[in-house]
Design brief:
mainly alpha
């Protein structure tokens, strides 16, 4: 079974988080959500909101395409 787009984005944001040695709780706090909700993003169960994409891009100092171009 092919992964969904949300699952691919989830893998990307997990890789970015781990590369910077952040916990899910840290990133969740930055986004103003629970760790459980952030975990759903990484698992591809939930789809990132536009606001959260923008916040992640600002936090990681990257273009949003790095998050979305999978």
């Amino acid at each position: 079974i092919m992964p969904t787009y949300s699952q691919k984005v989830g893998v990307r944001i997990r890789e970015m988080r781990v590369e910077c040695s952040y916990t899910q709780s840290t990133i969740a706090a930055i986004l103003g959500i629970t760790q459980e909700q952030y975990s759903r993003y990484e698992a591809g169960i939930a789809t990132l909101t536009i606001l959260h994409i923008a916040l992640l891009a600002a936090w990681y100092k990257c273009d949003y395409n790095r998050i979305l171009a999978v």
